[in-house]
Amino acid sequence: MEETIRPFEFRQCISILKATGRMAKNLREFRQGIAEVNEESVYHHTCQYFMKEHAREYTNDFAHWAGESLEERALSEHLSNVDPYDFESISDLRNEFVRVIDSYLVFFPEPREVLPGDEFYFNQTITFVFPTGVRAQNLAEFLMAIKHVDVASIYYHFYEARTRLGSGIDDFSAWLENVFGKNDLAGRIRSIDPFMHTIEGIREHLIEYVEAEVRRDMEVMT
Amino acid sequence: MIGRYSGVVPHGDLLFLQKLAERLRDRTFLHINSTRAGGGVAEILQRMIPIMKELGIGARWDTIEGDDLFFDMTKKVHNALQGNKEHITKEMWDHHYDINRMNAKRLDLDADAVLIHDPQPAPLVEFRKSATWMWRCHIDVSDPVPEVWSNLKGYCAKYDAAIFSVAKFARAMGTDEFIIPPSIDPLSEKNRDVKEEEINETLQKYHIPPDRALLLQVSRFDRFKDPLGVISAYRMVKKYNDCILVLAGSPATDDPEGEVVLKEVRDHAADDPDIHILLLPPFSDKDINALQRAATVVLQKSLREGFGLTVSEAMWKGKPVIGGATGGIPLQIVHGVTGFLVHSVEGCAFRIRQFLNNPDMSARMGERGREFVRNNFLITRQTRDYLSVWYSLENKGKSVLTL
Question: Does a structural domain hold residue B233?
């Protein structure tokens, strides 16, 4: 009897933005806000940063605001270097941001206030997850799907999965490794720097790696 | 109708709308505002209600009726919420309530979800039956006159949720507050694809040469839109770059302030034959569409702005845009990615020069702008967001919902 292959079911997510009612106009209020807002808000401003289009200068909303509105460039570099996928919980991630800001405040204790209108607003999201109706049972189908699914689907499987699965692992590499034993391909996908690309850029890398693998498989078969 | 959006809006948005509609099918969704015609709210409702109906949701749209006193008062409230000094007496607030009480008797408020738009019908919440009630604020309330906001807040806090266009407009009210930006309809007369002949027809009608770089700002003649600053920027650009400037707005028949600004603009333009000041009559959507498509660079150099959807309109047409860093404009222009944000006349002139001298960069940013609008500022996204808020309020306490 043929072994059943577990297909890859493409899903995607859509979020609506909700205000927490909290804002900050200087670094001390900002630090306090990060320390006290709910975990959904910390998650939104860090892990969900890649849902939004933005310049490739920063890796989370906190660093973005510190750089662009507070104009504390060194602080924004420190904040950008925090990798949210290094932490086991949002609480640990929050503590790291607070630690970075506290260290900065020791040397620069009186940062200025931002201009009116440039305040930081702490938000959170409600996320809806739904199936796209696209599934792949082999590498060729997977390649076709990757080329055509919405960016929100790539986001869900490449970024959102990292917190869902833990250990910074994405759904794509997990499926390729677990179902087909494609450890090298999975490794290449895991080596894509998640902070240095747009989602379309991630899609291009995925296509390049999977296409090369499909070509290799075909050559072996002939 | 919804099929017409296929291939235009993100596929996932249509899919999600269908999934949500499966759960909300045959349930009723009532929208109430104060006018059927004129203004962005009526414009978007005219097109959104049929979409919801087609999804199988019992969507209805009603308007409240009032006398001159009522609408004078609500105009004052509108101005005060935007920060202008206005004094609203207790008698005026009482009249506001009374008119809403009368409307509550006249209107059928029985629906599974009710979305009340803006301050005019806000007191209707006092007459709510069961169901989910949401208040949608389309106004910039980031710096309101405190006593006016305080009076209105008494009503707003009784809703299950409030919805604002921009995060900084949200006010602490003790109720759930969502952020839903407005949107444009890609199939409307103002945004649909047009033929080359239609563009040329408009250019001929307004005596605009088709073969020169065209800078365009479409907006009311209002100081907050900084038309004088736009002319000054154009003059700085002109030193090394040939171009013409088109300022297109509506005639200011009912706005004495508008007449004054228009005169200032004409004086500032002096007799420069390359500055075209166009007074477009109502229902000029097709001409606006054509002008935006004919433009080389589109400006929205506002000093203060509600949301500034003209930015999304231009981006949807793949145009490089330059906007003042105010209101909802920074949500639409990701600086250096989908356009440029500016803080001064000089900055505006510099960015125009960059665009005129780098056609490849202009095309690249224009294309990214169009995709950004596709993913964030089209009517299907706003429709899905309204339905999502309703659905999430019925599933309160969950931050992730699986459909």
Answer: yes
